[in-house]
Structures are given as C-alpha cells and as structure tokens.
Known about the structure:
Elements: H1 2-12, E1 17-19, E2 24-30, E3 40-46, E4 57-62, E5 74-76, E6 82-84
Antiparallel strand pairs: 1-2, 2-3, 3-4, 5-6
Amino acid sequence: MARQDFIDQLEALGYKVEERGDFRLAFRYIVPIGRFEGKEILLGFIVTDDFPLNPPSGPHLWPQICCALTSKKISALPSGTLAVGEIELQHCYTP
C-alpha cells in the first residue's frame, strides 16, 4: 500500500503516473527552467513497497538530457578527494 501512497501523492500534484512493471513508475514532466526549459521528459522512479521507509531510486530521465561521463578512471585530486570519471549507467533504466 505504501507504493500506492507515492502514486497518490504524485497524482495529487497533477501528474499522470504510468506503472511500468518491476516497481518502476514514470510520469511526464515539463522542465521549468534552464537550458531545457519547456522540454517534456519522462521522470522515472523505482518505488518499492517499503516506501517511505526507503526512498525511491531515481530520478531516471528519458530522453537523457544530462551528459554521461565516459572515463572509467578514478583518480585522486590535489585536495585529497577522489574524482570519479563515470556514471554507472547499468543502474539506470529507460522509463
């Protein structure tokens, strides 16, 4: 029932939620500001039945409007922090 609460909350905000199986939900969203202002995208989330105890994973975007980095290298910066060079796309799905 908790997953349904997530859906109900989105619908209360005026979004039409599409259930896509395997706990995946998606809804159409118009980007309100920035470089992609006015562009319609699908926002996807994986929402399990233990929501809100565990938050949904995401957001997953389609079409992909952010660039994915291509280097698999992880290197140390002079500050001592790590620079990660790749977004792990295998954890993403296409809504």
